[in-house]
Amino acid sequence: MITRRAFALGALAQLRPKPNILLIATDDQGYWDLGIHGNPVIETPALDKLGAESVRFRRFYVSPVCAPTRASLMTGRHYLRTGVYNTRFGGDTMHSGEVTIAEVLKKAGYRTALFGKWHLGRYAKYHPLRRGFDDALHFSQGHLERYTHPDQLNWNGAPVEARGHISDVIADSARSYLLANHGQPSFCYVAFNAPHTPLYAPDTYAEKYLKKGLSYSDAHMYGMVSHMDAAIGRLLEAVDENTIVLYMSDNGGVSKHFTAGLRGFKASAFEGGVRSPLFVRGKGFGPRVVDAIAAHVDIFPTLCELTGAELPRDRKIDGVSFVKHLRSDAPADPDRRVFHIWDRVAPSLKSNALGIGGQRYKWVRGQLFDLDNDPGEKVDIASKEPAIAAGLRNELEAWFADVTKGKVFEPVPIEVGRDDENPVEIQASWATVSEGAAYTFLGYDWDSVEKLGAAKWKLEVLRGAAYEVRVAYALAPEAGGASLSLRIGGASVEARVKPSAGPNVFAVSSVGTVKLSKGACVLEARATKAEVAINRIWLHRVS
Ligand SMILES: [Ca+2]
Fold first, then answer.
1. Which of 72, 164, 361, 529 has a C-alpha 20 to 30 A away from that of 343?
2. 93 Cα to the center of ligand 1, angstroms
3. Which 3 state secondary structure label does DSSP give 31?
4. Which value, to the nearest 10 degrees, does the dihedral of the CA atoms of residues 278, 283, 287, 291 take?
5. Residue 67 C-alpha to ligand 1 middle, in angstroms?
6. How many angstroms separate the alpha carbon of residue 241 from the centre of ligand 1?
7. CA 420 → CA 10, 12, 416, distances in Å?
8. pLDDT < 70 positions in the chain
9. Residues of the chain with CATH 3.40.720.10
10. Ligand 1 center to residue 71 CA distance, Å?
11. What CATH superfamily classification does 17-327 receive?
12. Residue-level pLDDT at 1
């Protein structure tokens, strides 16, 4: 039976405007790279102020590296369920069947926008505009090659170039977006890429920390954080009082000057690798510090509860809403677990970064720590508490079996022949290389497959048609010319290529036109000379 009071409260809730959501994520900023977390050197006045006004989670956990956290943030699910298993080589693609927080908020009446790093799929099918975002100024890679005047940005489907430092570009574009009145509640996801490498802080910011005796890399990281902090300060000025602001990082820290007594860095399952700041500011929340553990997967259900958006019912959502911790001093859930796993090749129970934590105890690759008494994970108590260690390990194994069930960890096929992605650019990093072939990563623009051997790319040809094949390759002048052949499904094309200016200078050459039939196939590149390196291949539909 609905009481009159409950009915009246329900009606009131409908009248109250839905809160705007501003979700700020930074990149490789450690738990410790903040003044409010006790760092005596770094200057972060805007974030410290935000933290003091917020509900601040002391133990908020993210994945050990970038793309996994972003997948969990977008879906509320452990990343291994979502198709993401790596930060590059195509393993940073979130399957198109995943439902994102932007999609559910859009359904609930929100206008949605992304500013900054996406890192969940570079091809058109996986573009943020197809994942629930109405607007997106984004880049897809794990980092940008250029932090000033970045040229790898995309605004609503078209490549754009920008002036200034990327942190300013991201913050000021998001600020303009917030200041424009869209006439509906907004969800704005602002994903900075500072202080991720390449280390590039504006001079005055880096110099300040170099003068204080920090190493070159720490001075630049601190400089990037302080510079970003100023940009976040400007962004927060554009926020109205009906906005819930969340701030977090995407993995543990990299800087070494001050580590808040925590063990490990980015890519590790120790606290330093997986603990992130989390501040949540909103009307009726805190300010307070929460000791209960929480994780990136919780953001999705929390935002659903705060906005009245509906959780997807057809799949497992791993996170739990932490709204109760925002509104009151609620006790921690003793059965809550957070899971940590990361491996550059493929996830396994032998991965270097592997762990499971509860409110008090944490198991990391056979070691057990009592975080209440040993937050620095210094004393392994596995032999003293074998039952606790075994229990956690069993839970982790069951979890691993569940999240990897039926999953294949290899790049998704690259779609060929789309109208909105013609030509399609195939990167060296997506190749499966074997038989003596080698892959070199020198930044996303400069990666290459060398000693071609049998480099293979999986394709999905959407339309049977003629395609022109162009290749960016390097071949040293002293090697003379070479013959380059590409086999795509049943078709093949071959051409003589001239040397480029040097072994690390890529030249672009057309290899010919090939007729492809619709369907899945494999692209294979071979050369008569071992010295040929391939940087990129373009397939341009011409019929
Ligand atoms: Ca990161």
1. 361
2. 16
3. coil
4. -50
5. 7
6. 30
7. 45, 45, 10
8. 1-15, 435-437, 452-454
9. 17-327
10. 12
11. Alkaline Phosphatase, subunit A (3.40.720.10)
12. 45
* Cα 250 to middle of ligand 1, angstroms: 5
Contacts of residue 502, Cβ cutoff 8 Å, sequence gap at least 6: 474, 476, 477
Q: How far is the CA of 165 from the centre of ligand 1 (A)?
A: 18
Question: Phi, psi at residue 102, to the nearest 5°?
Answer: -65, -40
Residue with tokens 């499971």: 356
- The β-bridge relationship of strands 507-516 and 367-370 is unpaired
**Integer Cα distance of 219 and 205 in angstroms:** 8
Q: What is the pLDDT of residue 63?
A: 98
**Which residues on adjacent β-strands are paired with residue 460?**
415, 520
User: What is the 41 CA–ligand 1 centroid distance (Å)?
Assistant: 22
Sole residue written with tokens 């969340």: 246
> 27 CA to middle of ligand 1, Å?
4
pTM over 0.90: yes
**Residues near 384 by Cβ (< 8 Å), separated by ≥ 6?**
none
How many angstroms separate the alpha carbon of residue 209 from the centre of ligand 1?
22
Note the Cα 421 to chain centre separation in Å: 23
Q: What are phi and psi of 340, to 5 degrees?
A: -130, 125
- Residue position matching structure tokens 């929390």: 302
CATH 3.30.1120.10 given to domain 338-404: yes
- Whether residue 66 contacts residue 54, with contact meaning beta carbons closer than 8 Å, is answered with no
- Residue 461 near residue 414, CB atoms below 8 Å: no
Contact by Cβ (8 Å): 62, 297: no
CA 395 to the chain's CA centroid: 26
Residue that the structure tokens 């590409």 belong to? 486
The rounded Å distance from CA 1 to ligand 1 centre is 50
Start-end ranges of CATH 3.30.1120.10 in the chain?
338-404
SS3 readout for 378-443: CCCCCCCCHHHHHHHHHHHHHHHHHHHCCCCCCCCCEEECCCCCCCEEEEHHHCEEECCCEEECCC
Distance 251 CA to ligand 1 centre (A): 5
The answer to whether domain 414-541 has CATH 2.60.120.260 is yes
Q: Select from 170, 160, 105 the least CA-distant residue to 131.
A: 105
Distance 64 CA to ligand 1 centre (A): 8
Would you call 337 helix, strand, or coil by DSSP? Answer: coil
> Residue 456 in 3-state DSSP?
strand
* Distance from C-alpha of 387 to C-alpha of 393, rounded to nearest angstrom: 10
How many DSSP H helices and E strands does the chain contain? 11, 27
Nearest alpha-carbon partner for 515 in 469, 467, 461: 467
Tell me the HSE value of 173 on the side-chain side, using a 13 A CA sphere.
26
Tell me the pLDDT tens digit for each residue of 11-69.
Answer: 555 557 899 999 999 999 999 999 999 999 999 999 999 999 999 999 999 999 999 99
Residue 531: both structure tokens together: 């010295």
| pLDDT tens digit sequence for 160-211 | 999 999 999 999 999 999 999 788 999 999 999 999 999 999 999 999 999 9
